[in-house]
């Protein structure tokens, strides 16, 4: 007999079928969670031996939260609430906290909070902690995620024992990921160094470790070269000792190489900010002949604009920087046009008066910021896409925020060159900078060009302030720390030369960072200042001097 279902009843039957099919799955999930919670609850009254058994049972459940619970138990963050004896994981056990944030051990979701005296801690001893470390590592080594397995091996490498060595040997035979195999080989080689009676094995281990940059490896190999109180080597095998000395030398060479690259990278990031800050100055002075001592405060306004943008969109921090960049350009550019139209335009041809006037403007802007935001530093949050590091190996990494700042500077510099070389505004700015009277005779409105030039220089300073907010504190005195360096860059690179300012900023940034480890930050800047003075004695017009009519007024 065949049963047919009419079209109007078919949706109802499908709905009922889905509901009945879903019941066993839902019921099974609920049963697994209840069983897992019941096992966790047994920790409350268990002794240390029983806790080991409970930990094994938790792992055997295969529950997704098992590793988190055991990790919390290892870190003494598992508590029971006294009023109902319910188990919880505590996010932090900081003694300064008046209440602990609770996490449900099954769902790992927020479960409210409780005062410390309302909770009872699940205690551990050394034996249990060693067992937990091994259990967690075993659990992690079987994870399908290679990153988790790498982290597990690195954790085991810090405290190798017979059980962990045997576990790593078993894992090495079946491991397919090259990164995990590399870390396992490192751990097994470190373990082989302790085999006193096997000289060939130890020599092979030293050879394996010679290209490893892990600090644990370096410290262990260096220990083979130590001497006792009598001055004799602790390591008695000369062949092993000589191989270890060669390995340490190779590691030191690699570490020094990466240290130089890291120093250059930090210098480029500092130099990028200096170049951005100085480009506005060199544009202003090259076209208008104005020495703007308020340029540092324009940097500060750009940084504060970033802070205000983040206040206005707290739920969208990741895109706040993309909003802050044009916002800072508009705000500081508008302030620059306002300063030029109300003060600077009356002082052309009188550099001393412009210097004093802009110094007064800088004081006004500083006090304005103090009145609006107070004198305290303001926090600017780094977006997640700018956070973290790009890790190359154990001793060399590059921070994303500095990488983005370097890239951002290159983009701004390229856009500025396009504006100056490919637009009418840029053409008129170059015409006024080369011969103001001739430009006027050709119909160029020099007053409009002056205002746009000052606004452009101020806007670029504001954009530099956005970048600077990711490297230092945002406060009323932020600009004062960079104004002197900006003038040094302009003078060193060549007044009015965009390329000279860019290369000069990067150069001085690198020199600053190279000198800091040897002379300190303050003395390093003094050496840079002395070096620039000596350089200007030989080349008064800077690294890339302007030529032709553009240099007549300099």
Give the gist of this structure.
With 554 residues, this protein is mainly α. The protein is built from 20 helices and seven strands.
Describe this structure in words.
- It is a single chain.
- The relative contact order is 0.08.
- Helices cover 66% and strands 5% of the residues.
- Helix 2 (48-61) packs parallel to helix 4 (126-141).
- The chain contains 20 helices and 7 strands.
- The model is unreliable at 1-26 and 548-554 (pLDDT under 50).
- The protein is mostly helical and 554 residues long.
- The longest helix has 51 residues, at 238-288.
- It has helices at 10-41, 48-61, 66-74, 126-141, 146-157, 162-174, 178-192, 199-209, 215-223, 238-288, 295-312, 317-342, 351-373, 400-422, 424-434, 436-441, 446-468, 480-493, 498-519, 521-538; strands at 78-81, 87-90, 100-103, 110-114, 119-121, 389-391, 397-399.
- Strand 6 and strand 7 form a beta hairpin.
- The strands form 2 sheets. A 5-stranded antiparallel beta sheet has the order 4-3-2-1-5. It has a two-stranded antiparallel sheet with strand order 6-7.
């Amino acid at each position: 007999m065949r049963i047919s279902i009419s079209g109007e009843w078919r949706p109802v039957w499908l709905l009922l079928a889905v509901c009945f099919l879903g019941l066993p799955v839902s019921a099974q999930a609920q049963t697994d969670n209840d069983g897992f919670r019941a096992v966790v609850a047994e920790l409350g009254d268990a002794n240390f031996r029983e806790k080991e058994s409970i930990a094994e049972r938790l792992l055997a459940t295969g529950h997704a939260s098992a590793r988190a619970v055991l990790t919390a138990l290892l870190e003494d963050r598992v508590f029971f609430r006294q009023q109902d004896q319910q188990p919880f994981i505590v996010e932090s056990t900081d003694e300064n906290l008046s209440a602990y944030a609770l996490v449900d051990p099954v769902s790992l979701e927020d479960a409210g909070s409780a005062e410390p005296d309302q909770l009872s801690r699940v205690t551990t001893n050394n034996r249990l902690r060693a067992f937990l470390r091994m259990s967690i590592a075993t659990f992690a080594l079987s994870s399908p995620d290679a990153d988790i397995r790498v982290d597990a091996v690195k954790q085991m490498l810090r405290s190798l024992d017979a059980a962990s060595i045997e576990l790593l040997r078993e894992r090495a035979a079946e491991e397919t990921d090259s990164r995990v195999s590399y870390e396992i080989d490192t751990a097994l080689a470190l373990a082989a160094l302790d085999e006193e009676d096997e000289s060939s094995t130890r020599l092979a281990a030293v050879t394996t470790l010679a290209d490893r940059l892990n600090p644990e490896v370096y410290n262990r190999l260096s220990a083979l070269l130590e001497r006792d109180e009598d001055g004799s080597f602790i390591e008695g095998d000369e062949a092993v000792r000589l191989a270890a000395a060669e390995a340490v030398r190779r590691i030191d060479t690699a570490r020094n190489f990466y240290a130089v690259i890291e120093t250059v990278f930090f210098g480029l990031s500092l130099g990028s900010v200096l170049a951005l800050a100085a480009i506005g100055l060199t544009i202003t002075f090259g076209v208008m002949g104005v020495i703007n001592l308020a340029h540092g405060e324009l940097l500060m306004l750009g940084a504060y604009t970033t802070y205000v943008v983040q206040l206005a969109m707290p739920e969208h921090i990741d895109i706040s920087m993309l909003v802050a960049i044009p916002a800072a350009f508009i705000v500081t550019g508008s302030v620059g046009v306002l300063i030029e139209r109300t003060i600077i335009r009356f002082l052309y041809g009188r550099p001393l008066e412009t210097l004093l006037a802009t110094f007064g403007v800088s004081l006004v802007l500083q006090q304005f910021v103090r009145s609006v935001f107070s004198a305290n530093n303001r926090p600017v949050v780094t977006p997640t896409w700018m956070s973290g590091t790009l890790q190359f190996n154990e001793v060399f990494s590059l921070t994303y925020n500095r990488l983005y700042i370097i890239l951002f500077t290159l983009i701004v510099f390229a856009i500025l060159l396009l504006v100056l070389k490919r637009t009418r505004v840029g053409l008129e700015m170059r015409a006024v900078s080369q011969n103001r009277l001739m430009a006027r005779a050709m119909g160029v409105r020099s007053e409009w060009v002056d205002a746009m030039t000052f606004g452009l220089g101020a806007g670029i300073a504001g954009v530099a302030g956005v970048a600077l907010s990711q490297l230092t504190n945002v406060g009323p005195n932020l600009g004062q720390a960079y104004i002197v360096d900006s003038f040094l860059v302009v003078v060193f690179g060549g007044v009015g030369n965009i390329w000279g300012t860019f290369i000069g900023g990067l150069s001085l940034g690198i020199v600053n960072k190279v000198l800091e480890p040897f002379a300190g930050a303050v003395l390093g800047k003094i050496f840079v200042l002395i070096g620039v003075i000596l350089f200007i004695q030989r080349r008064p017009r800077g690294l890339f001097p302007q030529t032709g009519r553009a240099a007549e007024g300099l």
